[in-house]
Structure formats: structure tokens, C-alpha cells
Amino acid sequence: MIKLRRLFGLLGLLSAPLAVHAQNAPVTVQAEAGTIRDAAATPAALTFSSEAGTGFLRVVGDFVTLNGSTQSPNADNRVVSYNITFPGPGTYDLYARVRVGSGGFNDDSYYVPNSFGTRSAFETSRWVNANGLAGGGYTNATDVVSAAGTVGTNNVWKWVRMSSFGSSAYTVPAGSLTQTFEIGSRENGLDIDKFVFGASGVFFTVDNLDKGQQGSVTPPPPPFNPPGPPIATGKPKFLGGVYSNPQKVNFGKYFNQVVSENGGKWGSVEGTRNVMNWADLDSSYLRAKRQNIPFRMHVLIWGNQQPSWIENLPPAEQLAEIKEWYAAVAQRYPDIAFLEVVNEPTHDAPVKQSPTDQGSGNYIEALGGKGATGWDWVITSFQLARQYFPNTPLMLNDYSVENTTAGAQQYLNIINLLKQRNLIDVVGIQGHAFSTQPTPAASLTANLNLLASAGFPLYITELDIDGLQDEVQLAEYQRVFPLFWEHPAVKGVTLWGYRPGHWRTAQGAYLAYENGAERSALKWLRDYVQRTDISTITTGNLAATTFCVGSPVSVPFTVEGAVTANRTFTAQLSDAAGSFTAPTAIGSVTASAAGSYTIAATIPATATAGTLYRIRVVSTSPSVFGNANSTNLTLKALPTATLSGTTAICAGSSATLSVALTGTAPWSVTYTDGTTPVTVTGITASPYTFSVSPASTSTYALTAVSDGSCTGTALSGQAVVTVNPLPTPSLAVTPANDVYTGGVPTTLYLGYGPQSVTLTATGGTSYSWSPAAGLSNAAIANPVFTATQPGVYRYVVTVTNGFGCSATQEVTLTVLDVRCSNNANSDKVLVCQNGKVICVSVNAVPAHLKKAGNGLGSCTPEASSNVASAMGDALGQSFDTYPNPFTDRSVIRFRSAATAPVQLQVYNQLGQLVATLYQGVAEAGRDYETTLEGRSLTEGVYTCRLVSNGKVETKRLVLVK
């Protein structure tokens, strides 16, 4: 405050002004001397009382709301009139001695007129709400009643200078020294003792006013008209101001961003349902347009200064009205730089706190209430804002979130809920003196850093710094303002008033006097902002919102302001939750001047998949944080492929390989087959299996996998398919004895010679014979076949080697029944002798077989064949060979009596199949001819066997070389 002793030292310089003011002694008016317009009205709103010899006017009726407005008395029994005669013409300031009741700020306002004269109790334009008396005033006798004062004690008499609470000066013209002065009551609990009209430009102490004495003329700061331009002109950050009638003076010469103080609050615009008063808000908006500066809309949703008519509507109807409010603002103001969607969510939600609470809106449930998140009503408010303001940056705003870690963290939690849903773009921090003044600079910085970790630009939205003494205010400005202005994430600062009429006028938060003279803090502020080099970084929008880890990304950004040579700008990737508390550097670029640049960055291959990533650009030396990109980014993990499957196969077979895939179908997989790349596309399920048939041992390795957007190259697994050789089996037929039969080992004669043979297979480690019938053991290499019944017996042996690979070999055994004795005690067999079949004793067989042309059983095969051919001709069937014997080749010709499957095969003397000359269906009556090549065969006797129509015929072929 300004002490009287500081003023008297200058009186010698002010003799002329004193002479002027000496004729205008202060005029004292006792408050209880007035006349109540409608004193008979009941209940009474005003009474005259006395206490300890002091008479006073007491307000006993609380304010009256009319059409949602409390900006005038609104009743004649709330208006008091006084007729005052002044000693001379001139301009007078109003002082009042008041006592605020125990209700404090609920007992501390009344209405004063903006000029002399009679006016209607309902004429809002001619009444001024003098509010906030509880926070100001003077009581010490020597105190100069020059500003709002600092006495915040209730129930004490104190002097207030009414111009510090909204009142204007009053003019008394020459020739009209008697004037009508009126006041109106507003809040009960306020007592008024007396009024004093003192000549403007004269300063009065409490003692002067108590005694009705002339005050002293001090050297007020000379009137000042700032030249402009706005303080932050040419700076990359704005210095904005609040816009209202007291703050409009010289606005454009100080500030380059604007926000309406009260005009944008819903209760101010639509105090009466469906009756819109846009005047104050239009004024702010048009100021932004005229000056071409950003306009901030304050505010859509709040728990204060909301329309009273909405409080008791059903929630559905409340929501409909909220949407109408959004739509009306969006239509009227298309160029909003920042839209305050919700104000003070942690302190003043739109919920009725008590039955007498007014102005809360009471519509929290219409917006979803607290809900599962605890802040559903905030989320809904922003969702509606995105709908109605799709291209406008959306802001959350609150106070006392910078002075405690708990407050900052709670605020950050709400920010992150909105961020997860892409609903917020900027963060507002009010920055009032009651939050900053008691908080160390280090704590303020730490909490700003915490809030900046969300990646959004920060704005100080309602800065004020108290100080009734210039030196006190200056010191606090010098402590706090640079902390905000130079913070790397703060992009702008808005002062919540700078002239008297400031909402904290009583605390001395104004920066200029009514005549425009600047206080010390304002002079310092201009100099500091203009001489301080700062820069800002704006991270641009990325070309896409989905990236694969390890992929490149171009990060555009713009830097404004002072840029030192070779300054490094780094792109940072947030963590998976979108926080920049511990960001990852992903690329950088060097620049030496302001401008637009692009960083060629790379998403780390180690980044985990997620949907809430953000990227911002920062710099060091100096430290500046760019905003994060405006949309959550999705990082997709690279798909992976793991190869597994068969590792060893046998020659001629296939291996099955399996690829286990991660990512999103469909996939494409590339693998190498030896050195040849093979790509398979359109894979829709994992695992994916495929077969390979290498001719020799081969290596298969994965080289790439793609899921349509991401391609992986660091893949797991390879398969070495080893091709093992097949066994090379051989098969021998060994008779049980060496009795000569004149035939081959594969032909057994029932009644003579060996009655069994040993089938010996070689070339493997295990053996399996099929069929097993007729063999001594089907699972050994050398089973014994014993003839019991005549017929043709075909056996296949499967030979398996040590690699588990198998091959087959087959043999055909022919059993002929040559027995001819009817006497069971006499063994006789058939012998073909000289073309005739005779029955002889087995003992006589060797002698017969020694003779050429003789043989066991029927006569020679040729003769038998001729007989068979003759029979076949009769049946329409034939089978013959020529030449026979042969040296190079022999032609075999056959005809089937009926259409049926036919098999024509040739066996060697060991019973081994050496050629299949025909296998298939033969048509009835048709002649078929084929050739047996003898060049690859060894000399010897071969058996040609024809199976047709269920009958078996054989011919003996002799190969001579």
C-alpha cells in the first residue's frame, strides 16, 4: 500500500494543484440519512439502525434474481436515494465506510450508480455491482485509501475507495451543485455507515475520511498512453489479456490474444432460456478479428455461472440444451483458436453442492456423471465438442494444478483419459496468485514438467500476480513470469486483467492505473518479454497414423523465434501410454534459422505394439518442447515366422514343413529352397504347412514374412531336409535240396524234388514279406516257402535300411502237381517222354530227365502251349511267341476270349520278375503284340506268364547269345 509519509515529501512540488482542490472539501453523507423508495414493502430489504452511537444502513434482504439476472436491485424497496449539495463543481471519487458481515464474500456487495440522477431499480445498464468488499479496505488512521486495500477481516468498520470496486467518478457541473445519488442493496449482511465524495486527484487517509477533512494531493503517476504494438509482437509466444469493460482500454497496445472475462459463460449468454445475449462475447471475438489475434472461447462447461433455469430440468432435456449451447457457439464463432471445453473439473463440477447453491448448472448426470472413469462427464463434454467443433483445438482448464504434485497428477489423469480418445489438443493452467505465490519455483517447474509429459502445448490462461506495493508485485513477477514464459512446453500466457476492475484489484494484481500509468511490474514485463530470446516448436501432422516397428517416419515441424546456429532438433517417441516422461529419440536434424523442417526418423525395432503413441520434436540449448502430433499413433509389431518340421526323408518322398506365424492374416511368407527364393501369399491361418520333395539334402530358411502392412526379416528357424538313400534289395530262391527237376528254382513239383525253397532278401536291416501265408516267418530276411497246393504264389518283400527307407522286390513261385499214383504207398509222377506223358516211379525220374526233350509233368511247355493255343483258339483266346529260342528279341502275341484285366510278365530262372510287358484291360477278340528285348538280359531260360480271364498260361523262352 502507499503510506502517507511518502506523499508529504512531494507537497512542495504540488502547491498549484492543491490550490485547485482546496475549494472542494470532501462531502460526507450519512448512509442512514437516505430515503428508501418503497419503505413500506414487506419483508423489508433495508433498515436503518444504530450501534454504539453510530447510525448505519443495514441490508437485511438478499439479492433478487429477475430473468436470471442479478445486475440491478430489481425492487424499489432495495433502492435508497440521497440529495447532496456539493461545495463546487468538479469530478468526485466515492468512498464508503462499510462493515462486512460474518458471511464474508456472501455479505460484501451493493449497487452503486454509474452517474448522478434517478434510475429504475431494473435498469441494469445504469447500475454497477460493487463486489469483493470482503477482500479490501483500510482501517489504520494513516492509511491512504487509494486502492482496494487489504483488510479481509469481517465485522469491522473499514473505508473502501469505490472506484477500486467498479464505481466510476461522479461529475458535478457548474450551476447544478445539488445532485441525486442512489444506491441499491444486493447481499444481506452488509452495513454502510457513510459515504464521502472527495475531489478526484486528492488522496485521503482513513483519518481524513473519518473526520471529513480535506486530503492531500500526491504526485499521481502521470497519465500514460502506451504506444504499442503489443508487448509480445514478433515473439513466438503470445501475451494475451482478458476482455471486459474495465480491461478494454489500450488492450490492443499490450496484448495479442484475447478471451472474454465473463461474456462467454453460459449464464451470461443465456440467463433466460432461449434468450441469447452475445454482446460481450461478440465484443471479444470482434477484437480478435480486428487485431488478427487468437480468440479463446471461455467456456462451454463449468460448475459456476451457469443458467439457473437448467438446474432442475430432466437429464435428457438438460443434454438437449447443452447440445443447443454447443451448436449456437459453433455457428456464431467459426474462428476459435482455443476452445475451453471444461473449466475447473477438479474444483467446480456442474453439480449442485447444496440446496442454496446457485449457478452450478446441476447437469453432471446429463453428461454421464462420474461413470466408470470417474470423469465420464468430462469425456462426454469433449466428445460433444469434437462433434460440434471438429476443426477447433480443444482445451481443458483448471487452477491450482501447478502448485502441488497431487493436483498436477490428478489433472494429468484426466488429460490422459481424453488423450486416449483423441479428444484434447491443448492444456490450460490458470496460474492465479493464490496458487503461485506460496509455491517454490522448483515445485512449479516440476509440476509443469509433469503436465508437459502428456505432449500437449501448455497455456497459462488466467495469470495474475498480487502486490499492493509496487516492489512486492515486481519481485513476484520477476520470480514467476519467466518460469512460465520460458518453460519449454508453454506456448502462451494470458493475463486475467491488468487495470483496476481486475477481479483481484483488492489484492493489487492490476498492472496499470486508471489513467494508464504503468506500475513497475508492467514496465519490467514489457522490457523482459521484448529482450528475451525464445523459440517455439510446432510438431506437424504425420502422413499416417499406423507404423510398423523398425519402419521410417517423416516428422515435420516448424520452429519460430530465435534459433542459434547449428541447433539440434530431435524427434521423440513417447512410451506406449503416450507419455513423454522417458521418451525415445528416433531421429534429429540440425538447423540454424526459423522455418519448417522434416526429421527422417525411424521407429525403434524394439518398440512394443500399442495404439497410444505420440511423437514430438524438441531441442536442447535452449530446451524447447514441441507439441506432440495431434493423433494417437498405432505401432504394429513385425510379424514373425518360426519354421519347423520334418528333417529327414527318404529319396523320392516329401517332407512337411510348418511355419508358425504372428501378426494379422493374411500373411505372405518367403523362404529359400536352397538358393531359390519362394514366396507364398494369401496365407490365412497359422501354422501354415507345405511339402517339399528335394532330390538331395537341402536347406530351407525363412527370409521374410508380411502381414499386409508390416514385413519381418529377423525370422526364426531353418530346416535342413536330409534325403536318405533307398535300399537296393536283391532276392534269391534256394531249393531245400539239389534234386534235379529239369525246371527253375521258382517252380516246385508236388511229388518230386525239393518241396520247399528259401526266399533270401538282402540289402536292408529289416524285412517284411507280403502276404505272410505260406511262409515260415514273414518278418525275417529268409523265410521258407513249402509247397502244399498247386498254384502261382507272388510274394513282395519290403526291405528297410538303417535310415528307415524302404524298397520292394518280388518273386513268383509256381507249384505244379505232377503226382499220378493212385496208391498211397507208391510215389509216382508224370513225365513227358518223347511227346507223351507217362506215369513213372520217382526213382525212375532221373533217368528220364537225362534224355533230351523229357521233363516233369506235361509235355514240353511248347507242346503245352500249342495245346493251350489250340484250346484258346477254340475259345477265342491265343498266346504264342516267336522266335524261340531268340538272340536279340522275341515277339509275344496274345488274344483274350473276354474283355478282362490281363497281365503279361517274364521271370528269370530264380523266379525274379525281369519285365512286365503288358498290364491292363484287354478287349475280347483283339490281338495284342509286344516284344521282349534280350540285349539287357543274361543267357538262359525265362518263363513268360500270361494271366487272363482268371486263367494262367506260361511259355518257356530260351535266350541264346
What distinguishing features does this structure have?
single chain; 961 residues; alpha+beta; Jelly Rolls; TIM Barrel; Immunoglobulin-like; 7-stranded antiparallel beta sheet; 15 helices
Mean pLDDT: 90
Number of domains: 6
Morphology: rod-shaped
Tally of individual helices: 15
* Oligomeric state: single chain
CATH architecture of the largest domain: Alpha-Beta Barrel
Q: Mind telling me the CATH class of the largest domain? A: Alpha Beta
Structural class by sheet pairing and helices: alpha+beta
- How is the CATH topology of the largest domain named? TIM Barrel
**Largest sheet entry:** 8 strands, parallel, barrel
Work out the number of β strands.
Answer: 56
The helix fraction, in percent, is: 10-25%
Q: What this model shows, in words?
A:
The protein has 961 residues and is of the alpha+beta class. The protein has 6 domains: 5-211, Jelly Rolls, CATH 2.60.120; 238-435 and 458-469 and 496-512, TIM Barrel, CATH 3.20.20; 536-636, Immunoglobulin-like (Sandwich); 641-724, Immunoglobulins (Immunoglobulin-like); 730-856, Immunoglobulin-like, CATH 2.60.40; 863-959, Macroglobulin (MG2) domain (Immunoglobulin-like), CATH 2.60.40. Helices cover 16% and strands 35% of the residues. The longest helix is centred in the middle third of the chain and has 18 residues, at 315-332. The radius of gyration is 56 Å and the shape is rod-shaped.
